[in-house]
Request: fold
Amino acid sequence: MRYTLIIGNKNYSSWSLRPWLVLKHLGLDFDEVVIPLLQDNFKEKILAHSHAGKVPILKADGFDLWDSLAICEFLNDQYPEGKLWPTDPKAKAVARSISCEMHSGFFNIRNDMPMNMRRVINGVTPTAACQSEIDRVVEIWTNCRAEFGQEGPYLFGSFTIADAMFAPVVNRFATYQVPVSGQAATYMKTMQDMPSMKEWKADAIEEEWVIEAVEL
Ligand SMILES: N[C@@H](CCC(=O)N[C@@H](CS)C(=O)NCC(=O)O)C(=O)O
Reply:
């Protein structure tokens, strides 16, 4: 099975990063198609693959799959040996809870701190609503590391879908210089040091497309 992952620009497309990291973690050789967001007829190009009109999209053997979390779940089903969720039932339930919490929330962080991997932006004071979401992310990272992270440096020890789900937030915190300390800071460094994260960032830096609306 050879997959094609359709993604947005690596500099900006936070949702695209998640399944891309999972495919890399599984060691799969896959094709990658970048549709630059908000350029030319980008929407038409996305709609040609998915009527949901969003990236990422995974093209598998004969069918197309959309939504970052659904793609990660599909890959978990296809490759159980990849242990993309923790094996312990309680840890797995918590990993799914925080992944869904990330997937369905944190709108202030998303709006106020769009992913922008090639920049460091100083002097942004988060709104109270954004700060409370930042605090919640730090709480999640700190609690998971303390309770489930004994056997490795990720949220549940070894790399899981939960890490992929939070990877864009790591990049947002780095770009906007969000002050983070302790376990959460160590976790951010772990994520930033992953070879796949470095590869994505290097590719993002090379991109020339600019989305003015998210450049402060
Ligand atoms: N729930 C979706 C959301 C995907 C999403 O919002 N993707 C953005 C790019 S990061 C997109 O395709 N935007 C294009 C548009 O809305 O026109 C997922 O997790 O895959």
About this structure: The pocket of glutathione is lined by residues 8, 13-16, 37, 43, 53-56, 67-69 (CB under 6 Å).
